[in-house]
């Protein structure tokens, strides 16, 4: 199963991806997680990405495409993967097409979690409060001002990615405002 989860920040991509990992036994490839790990480790990629991520902007296509190309070549991704947070631009989607073609594989599904953007700030603030209460680190970009910039980046650069797949008849849209379990059920139905 090779799947892309699309949707703005706070749509629930990470939550649903984690559930699909258990269901299908394939890894969740989150470029956000990989970039945060690179920042924490102080790698050259992390050093380049840090300021952009802190401000809510998008890291360069070149960097994230490189990260994903390496990651999908790992043995655990050979049977499939769930892409969470990638592709975020049409250039990334085109690069992914090339990577998949070179490997002789194709996507099984592209799912957009469609949400009411006016409700997302509340959601993200809840996520930050829950992380804090659980003693987990709170993401620096889960802040109302930075979140606004992340949403702007989504609307400017990423909203066009879903139509890119829709044109090819590959897109399934799921109502991401439903309770979490209902979104999971809708996903299971869509993936057959
Ligand atoms: P996320 O965890 O998916 O919300 O990503 C956190 C941050 O990492 C984003 O706000 C971007 O700065 C950066 N990032 C993650 N994935 C990508 C991507 N595919 N393209 C560009 N920047 C990304």
Overall description:
About 55% of the residues lie in helices and about 10% in strands. The protein is α/β, with parallel strands linked by helices and about 190 residues long. The protein has a single domain (about 1-190), classed as 3-Layer(aba) Sandwich (Rossmann fold). A 5-stranded parallel beta sheet has the order 2-3-1-4-5. α4 (about 60-70) packs parallel to α5. Adenosine monophosphate binds near residues 31 and 57. Adenosine monophosphate (AMP) binds near residues 31, 53, 64, 86 and 141.
Counting DSSP E segments of at least 2 residues, the number of strands comes to: 5
CATH class: Alpha Beta
Count of alpha and pi helical runs: 9
- Major sheet: arrangement of strands: 2-3-1-4-5
What's the mean pLDDT score? Answer: 96
> Percent of residues in beta strands?
5-15%
CATH architecture term? 3-Layer(aba) Sandwich
* Bound heterogens, unique: adenosine monophosphate
Please summarize what this structure is.
The protein has 192 residues and is α/β, with parallel strands linked by helices. 55% of the residues lie in helices and 12% in strands.
Describe how the helices and strands are arranged:
Layout: E1 2-6, H1 13-24, E2 28-30, H2 31-41, H3 44-55, H4 61-71, E3 81-84, H5 90-102, E4 109-114, H6 120-133, H7 144-158, H8 161-166, E5 171-175, H9 180-191
Parallel strand pairs: 1-3, 1-4, 2-3, 4-5
Helix pairs in contact: 1-9, 2-3, 4-5
The structure holds adenosine monophosphate.
Adenosine monophosphate (AMP) is lined by residues 9, 31-32, 35, 52-53, 56-59, 64, 85-86, 88, 92, 141, 150.
